[in-house]
Every structure is written in structure tokens, then in C-alpha cells.
Amino acid sequence: MMSKDTLYKALKERILVLDGAMGTMLQRYKFTEEDFRGERFKDWPSPVQGNNDMLSITQPKAIAEVHAKYFDAGADIVETNTFSGTTIAMADYGMQDFVYELNYESAKIAKKVAQEFTEKEPKKPRFVAGAMGPTNKTASMSPDVNDPGFRAISFDELRIAYKQQAEALLDGGVDILLVETIFDTLNAKAALFAIEEVKDERGIEVPVMVSGTITDASGRTLSGQTAEAFLISIGHMPLLSVGFNCALGANQLTPYLEVVSSKSDFAISAYPNAGLPNAFGEYDETAEEMAAQIKTYLDKQLINIVGGCCGTTPEHIKAIADLVKDYKPRPLPALEQTAAL
């Protein structure tokens, strides 16, 4: 793990660049069902194509290549290939027993690439964020309209799953834990509670990033919170940064970043999609178009960390990295402590 001080020093000095989409890049490899399985899982009883996390075991070279491309493009931080790395999400493939290994190997791959780039360019240390996705279940809403009281998952089940993921990511050497693409804040609270447990048990400090997702034009998360309510719900935790990713393009995300930026003394992160998807679910926004929109964040001094989500590539990240070089990071405000509910 890179020293926490190194990360905080870098954050004070410049706007840090996060990587772009892992899934978008992996699609370029056109991996078949057999490629996903590799030797290790060639007799697996159910289809696994689409389980990108398992590629850290069966196609580690490709994962390392993607990380290297993002670092080459100017990223300071790459995310591990672990978006679905919990027993809850892996149940879709019957691969719960491999969760520790998937996270550990993903972290090791990313860390090795990060160290290589840091050695080449010591003035620009590279960091690894352990990606902890939202899972495919929600703790605060019923999936059954006929039974509003029903829950597909409990807080405790989420806590246990996230704790296992956090432990494996830390064992693999990540510098940061990133609880991301949060559509249900109760899920995120379970992840944050689990991380605090691990920190206490190990007697360590770990920088934690939190990134929610505003799902539509209503300006709310799927579980119904506004940007400010989301911030208040998690603001009691010791966080490195808070922000938003996914669901929206850079332009649509601006008003929500303005809200959290003005009301938070954490660093602010943003990694929007490459615009909104077209009729085929694909993202058309070019690197130049996306960078032009992100310039608004910089002109308004809204952010400290910026990257890309769905549809973004090393080209997008290079355009963003070239742009942020000329800007100072958002200064962290000293806010008066007030009770907010």
C-alpha cells in the first residue's frame, strides 16, 4: 500500500485523474465463453461470459494491459476489476467461493502495474482504488411491488459480503477503497460499516472514496435521495472524497456536483459516462466533447478527482488529463459543523 500521506499530498497539489471504463475496454478483446472460462473453469456448469471480474484469474494479461493504458493516458488512480466482487453479485454465476481470490488477484494485478509506472515517474505516484460496486440487490426497497415490506437482502448480509471484499482488496495491496455507483445509500452504509470494522481489527487507516449515482432527471438516487441528502447520510464517516459517477454525462452531473462541493469538506470526485447512451445502449461522446464539458467543473472549481465511467476509454482519460494540468484543485472549505438530517 502506498503511504496515505503521499496520496493526500498529491491531492493538495493537483487534480487527480481516475481511470475510465474497464468494461468498455474489455469488450474490445471480444472474449468468447471459452476465453472467460480459461483452463481453470473450462468445465464450469453455467455460462460465465460477461463475468468480467473472473478475467482477473483467467485473462490477467488483458486486465494488466487495460490498467497500463489508463496510466499511460495520464491516470493517477486506477480501479481494480472488482465491480461485482461480492458473494452477493457472484451468486449469479455460482462463484461465491472465488470472491476472495478474485479481489486479491485483481488488486495484485493493478498494484504491480501502478508500481511499474511510479518507478518510471516517481514525481507522479500512481494509486490503486479497490472498486466495491453496489451489488445487484437493494436493502432499502422491495423488488416486489405487491409486497412493499419485503427485502431481498439485509444490512448484515451486505456488511459480511463487503467485509470479505475489503479484506481481500487490502491484502492484495490497494491504496484506497472506493464504494461506488451507489444507488441505495443503505447498501453503501453497510460497505462503510464493514470497512470501519476491518480498519479497527487491523489497526490501519485506509482512504475511502464514496461515489453515488443520480439515476435520472429527478436528481435523486434510486432509493430516492437528493444529492444533499446522500451527502448527509454518509458525511459522518471519515472519507477521502465524495462524489458521483455513472448514469449521466458530464453536463447533466454539474448541478449535483455543485451541491456536494458547496456543502462538503471532503475532496469531490466525478467520473461521468461518455454522454447518455444511444438507442443501442452505446456511448457516442468523443474525448474532446467530454473534456469540453468537464472544463465547466474546473472553471467552477468543483472537483479534486475526475475520470470516466461507461463508454470512456484511454482517449477520454488523456483528454481529461491534458485539460486538468492547467487547473488548481478545488480548495477544501472549512465548514461550520451543523446538525443536518
UniProtKB/TrEMBL annotation:
Zn(2+) binds at residues 246, 309-310. Its cofactor is Zn(2+); methylcob(III)alamin. Pathway: Amino-acid biosynthesis; L-methionine biosynthesis via de novo pathway; L-methionine from L-homocysteine (MetH route): step 1/1. It holds the Pfam family S-methyl_trans. InterPro entries: HCY_dom, HCY_dom_sf, Met_Synthase/Corrinoid. GO terms for cellular component: cytosol. One of its GO terms (molecular function) is methionine synthase activity. Residues 4-324 form the Hcy-binding domain. It is an enzyme of class 2 (transferase). It catalyses: (6S)-5-methyl-5,6,7,8-tetrahydrofolate + L-homocysteine = (6S)-5,6,7,8-tetrahydrofolate + L-methionine. The keyword S-adenosyl-L-methionine applies. Signal peptide: none annotated. Its EC number is 2.1.1.13. Catalyzes the transfer of a methyl group from methyl-cobalamin to homocysteine, yielding enzyme-bound cob(I)alamin and methionine. Subsequently, remethylates the cofactor using methyltetrahydrofolate. Belongs to the vitamin-B12 dependent methionine synthase family. This is Methionine synthase.
